[in-house]
Write a structure and sequence with these properties.
Its EC number is 3.1.3.16. With 426 residues, this protein is α+β, with helices and mostly antiparallel strands. The protein folds into two domains: 18-150, 3-Layer(aba) Sandwich (Rossmann fold), CATH 3.40.50.2300; 183-425, PPM-type phosphatase domain (Phosphatase 2c, domain 1, 4-Layer Sandwich), CATH 3.60.40. The protein has helices at residues 29-41, 52-62, 78-87, 105-114, 126-179, 230-243, 255-258, 266-279, 356-359, 370-380, 386-400, 419-425; strands at 21-25, 45-49, 66-70, 95-100, 118-121, 186-189, 192-199, 207-214, 218-226, 287-295, 300-306, 312-314, 320-322, 339-344, 350-354, 409-416.
């Protein structure tokens, strides 16, 4: 071993200019010294080795980036040295050039298969040697840049993963809070039974369903669907839930009752929300809604439809009717037109208010369930009631989508029970 003419960089010093360190392995002393002088004049630090074993030990100690090795060396050929060099644990690639007196295709193939990056034919032409090493340095720089970029990417991904875990936890908690907006999932008022379904597509969603009593004989029911998905829709849903809560001082529909007046009617409530969206909220969001008042003693139901899917009335004899003409969504137009619906429920009838996450559910090839598909689901599950009906419907929709549901799914089920059935349930 012959040391270079200036101090060698430490192998574990990342700031050291080890790209300029060349390990030169050649058993021919005269040729090795000649090449070493040439390399030093080219600005390289040089470490010399007389055979492959000595060169391999120096690689372990110094981890050079550039290696020049003669093909014919005692004890360990240049190809064997290269192969052993590639099996070493290194923090960098290392550019390996084999020097040979022949350029036979078989030898070139063997050198490349052993892991050599390049080869030079002896006698060495100085300009070719320096040009090859310069190319090797460029490759080393690119490799360092890629390694640094990969390290930064891994660090960024680790931070992103930590952030994602926090967001995931927060969204799970937000889902619990949003599910808590629906305080009661079912209710019974005289002959009328109400059942609710709320199934977000993600952690949180923009659907909301619910009901509240209005006096002794009436019930307020609502179903709404905020445009978009995720946190923005969920926040607007939470705000709307405050205006539709059971507390009379917060519930918009019940405020009139505080002054001895009647509760706000369905159409008035829709217009109130439309003005609130346009005048008080700086947002591009809008929502669809059905709000209704049901007299549970007489079965009379008044509803307003604001862009929400049509309520589906299933009579006791199995006939199905889609109610309403649609109406405009809330928060889009200054002077919207909402559809007002009046219908009377008879014993044995049921009314389903479903979100478009049900009617617009799609198969993988893009075919929607639609109104006809919903009718088929209702007929198939006609013998079921309450939450059993809603859960079976939700399962049918998920099966129709092959589990790839893209939208929130919500529903309100009103059932006007026959007297005989109520007696059996009691």
């Amino acid at each position: 071993m012959k040391p270079a003419n200036r101090p060698l960089p430490a192998a574990d010093d990342p700031a050291a200019p080890d790209r300029r360190l060349v390990l030169l392995a050649d058993h021919n002393d005269e040729e090795r010294r000649l090449l070493a002088r040439l390399l030093r004049r080219g600005g390289y630090d040089v470490v010399e080795a007389r055979d492959g074993a000595e060169a391999l030990a120096l690689c372990q100690e110094l981890s050079p980036r550039l290696v020049l090795s003669d093909w014919d060396m005692p004890n360990m050929t240049g190809v064997e040295f290269c192969r052993a060099f590639r099996t070493m644990q290194r923090s960098n690639h290392g550019y390996f050039v084999i020097l040979t007196r022949t350029v036979a295709a078989a030898e070139i193939t063997a050198a490349l298969e052993a892991g050599a990056d390049d080869f030079l034919a002896k006698p060495i032409v100085p300009l070719k040697l320096l040009a090859r090493l310069s190319a090797g340095e460029r490759i080393i720089r690119v490799e360092e840049e890629l390694r640094a970029s990969n390290r930064q990417l891994r660090e960024a991904l680790a931070k992103l993963s930590d952030t994602q875990a926090v967001i995931e936890h927060d969204l799970k908690e937000a889902r619990k809070l949003q599910q808590g907006l629906v305080r009661e999932r079912s209710g019974r008022f005289g002959r009328v039974e109400i059942s609710l379904l709320l199934r977000p597509a993600g952690h949180v969603g923009g659907d909301l369903v619910g009901f509240f009593p209005i006096g002794d004989d009436r019930i307020g029911i609502y179903a709404l669907d905020v445009s978009g998905h995720g946190v923005t829709a969920a926040l607007l849903t939470a705000q709307l839930s405050v205006h539709l809560s059971g507390s009379s001082d917060q519930n918009v529909a019940l405020r009139g009752a505080q002054s001895g007046q009647d509760a706000a009617g369905p159409a008035a409530l829709a217009h109130f929300f439309n003005n609130m969206m346009l005048e008080e909220m700086n947002t591009d969001s809008y929502f669809t809604m059905i709000y209704g008042e049901l007299n549970h003693r007489t079965g009379q139901l008044r509803m307003v439809q604001a862009g929400h899917p049509h309520p589906v009335l299933q009579r006791s004899d199995g006939t199905i009717q889609h109610l309403g003409r649609g109406g405009m969504p809330i928060g889009v137009m200054d002077e919207p037109i909402f559809d007002e619906i009046e219908v009377t429920l008879n014993p044995g009838d049921r009314l389903l208010i479903a979100s478009d996450g049900i009617t617009e559910a799609q198969t993988p090839n893009g075919r929607q369930l639609g109104n006809e598909g919903l009718e088929a689901v209702m007929r198939t599950n006609a013998f079921l009631h309450g939450h059993s009906f809603l859960e079976s419907m939700a399962w049918s929709v998920s099966e129709y989508c092959r589990g790839e549901r893209q939208d929130d799914m919500s529903a309100v089920l009103l059932e006007y029970r026959a007297e005989s059935l109520l007696l059996r349930l009691d």
